[in-house]
Design goal:
By secondary structure, the protein is of the alpha/beta class. The protein is built from five helices and eight strands; from the N terminus they run βαβαβαβαββββα. The radius of gyration is 15 Å and the shape is globular.
């Protein structure tokens, strides 16, 4: 299964709208689902969550552990990606479930660069955790103008569609790593 991470916990986010578009691109190609950080339980943000993961967060962590590949969709907040996304990555068990896991990135922002800084920062962290990164990133600048109704403009859809095709080939080319348990 391809896990599409909607990388913010902001209600009504454009990030979730882009994640929905990406999810539709995988229909008929591979099983996929969206993990929306908006729904991660509030007790996951307690300082005690580092010591013992709250039971309610286990399904979210298990989804990241069990997937064959991660598509991370992130907005740019203050020159980086949202703290909720970093916290989610920090909660993942050790040894790293990102070890040898294929990961690709989609960045969106109101600005001209489409979250380039956020994606590059996120790539550093995922590389540190041992992930295999698809070099092809998709950036959606001026995201408020990128939609036509519920869908993205054709130029962005074409880029995301190509990325989905390339990512599926990429995930098939990498041998899966040994599973990592989620228990605290």
């Amino acid at each position: 299964m391809i896990l599409i991470v909607s990388g913010t916990n902001r209600p009504g986010s454009r990030t979730r709208r882009v994640a929905d578009v990406i999810d539709r691109l995988y229909v008929g190609r591979a099983p996929s689902r969206i993990l929306d950080l908006l729904h991660v339980p509030i007790d996951a943000y307690s300082p005690l969550a580092y010591l013992e993961k709250p039971r309610a967060v286990h399904p979210f962590l298990t989804a990241a552990v069990d997937c064959v590949g991660l598509v991370i969709v992130t907005p740019e907040y203050n020159g980086s990606f949202p703290g909720a996304l970093k916290h989610f990555i920090d909660l993942l068990p050790h040894p790293s479930p990102l070890e040898r896991k294929p990961v690709c990135f989609v960045g969106l922002a109101d600005g001209h660069w489409g979250a380039l800084r956020a994606v590059e920062h996120l790539q550093q962290i995922c590389t540190h955790r041992g992930a295999h990164l698809l070099p092809q990133r998709v950036f959606i600048p001026r995201v408020g103008e990128a939609f036509e109704g519920d869908d993205l403009k054709p130029e962005f859809l074409a880029r995301l569609d190509q990325q989905a095709q390339d990512f599926l080939a990429f995930t098939r080319s990498i041998a899966p790593a040994k599973p990592v348990p989620v228990a605290p």
